[in-house]
Amino acid sequence: MEDNSDRSKTGLIVLYEISNAMRTTLKLEQILYIILTGATSHEGLGFNRAMLFLVNEEKNTLEGKMGIGPDTGEDAKNIWHLIDSEKMTLDDLISAYDKFNAQTDPQLNNLVKNIILPLKEESGILALTCLEGMPFEIKEDVSKEKMDDSSIKILQATEFVTVPLKAKDKVIGVILADNLYTKRPITKEDIRLLTMFANQAGLAIENSRLYEKTVFLSNTDSLTGLFNHGYFQTVLDEKLKESNLEGKDLSLVMMDLDFFKGYNDSLGHQSGDRALSKVAHIIKNSIRETDIAARYGGEEFVIILPFTTKETAYNIIERIRTTIEKSDFINLDLRPKKTLTISAGIATFPKDALTKKELIKTADLALYKAKESGKNKTICFGN
Question: Which helix (H) or strand (E) holds 105?
């Protein structure tokens, strides 16, 4: 049986290996996967399950991000047998990220991702771990008799440990780990190693977030907060490939503010910038999570609607158009019709075009037709 000194030496080696693995990527999803694989693998810290939650500072909530571990005792036996029979190392398990990411319905992962908790003491042990910035060990008798914690019940955790993820003396999240299937007692050494590991993990997550923020800002238009023209071109290539592989439609929308030069000339560029920013805000709040909106240039916007038919695209854009028409912009009383409006053109892959260049051209032609036929309307290519 491994004594504490051996466990400690093994644990430090594991922490070193996982720390090196975390340096191989700056992508947040991959970082989270490496962290949880390190916490659960037989060559890692050896917990049966590990779940990770991150703080959303804007909403003051704790949000589930990823969970790794078997869904049943039978799954556990099969997974561990496979790992032993194929002599899979920690590196092998970390390299299996793409396979994990491709799973459409990992039960534990879905349960974790559906958990969102207000950062208040009454939200339970996960929120309390964040607020106190210290680990908690919960024994089975306590969880059964004294804990009225809905998220813990959802996860079916009975005897477990929670540790805060810290970066620069700030708590950015929580790891929950347990041995639901083996029932191996969680020792003080387990908690010590997991806490040390969580400190490394917190820094890796923070670095990843800073990197992703930098990438986001480099692809974002500073005035409107929408993506910029360069990013739009790159993403449209990717989304067209996906649509082609899946055999599904993709709709592209070109939008332009009507009579905007006159608005700018009469009211000044500051008022014009505020109007562009407000229109962008309306667009951003009106599209789906899967859609991509960008500033195409000047007063022109573009929206990529993946896996979307022309009819659905038309309904989405009409909602945006009417919302903008009814919105209150500064000094509208000086406008000819006392409104600020947009015209829009829609083209759909593959019916209207087979290449990116053709799709942009056909959407632009539809926009031109909307402009020429009276403005403040949405026109589909071919209509």
Answer: none
Separation between Cα atoms, residue 238 and residue 235, nearest integer Å? 5
Q: Nearest to residue 174, comparing CAs of 56, 23, 302?
A: 56
**Strands annotated E in the chain:** 49-56, 61-68, 116-118, 136-138, 160-167, 170-178, 250-257, 292-297, 300-306, 342-349, 378-380
If asked whether residues 113 and 178 sit together in one domain, one would say: yes
Portion of the chain with pLDDT greater than 90, in percent: 55
Span of 139-143, 221-225, 302-306, 341-345 with lowest mean pLDDT: 139-143
Residue 130's SS3 state is helix
The number of distinct structural domains making up the chain is 2
In this structure, the answer to whether residues 250 and 180 fall within a common structural domain is: no
Does residue 187 share a domain with residue 124? yes
3-state secondary structure 171-189: EEEEEEEECCCCCCCCCHH
Per-residue pLDDT tens digits for 191-210? 999 999 898 899 899 988 88
Dihedral sign for Cα 309, 312, 318, 320, please: negative
* pLDDT tens-digit readout, 133-160: 999 999 876 655 556 688 999 999 989 9
Structure tokens of 220?
């974002």
Respond yes or no: is residue 2 known to be catalytic: no
Residue among 189, 242, 299, 325 flagged as catalytic: 299
pTM: 0.65
Residues 339-355: b if buried by 16+ CB within 10 A, e if exposed? bbbbbbbbbbbbebbee
Which residues make beta-bridge pairs with 380? Answer: 346
Buried b / exposed e over 192-220, threshold 16 CB at 10 Å, is: bbbbebbebbbbbbbbbbeeeeeeeeebb
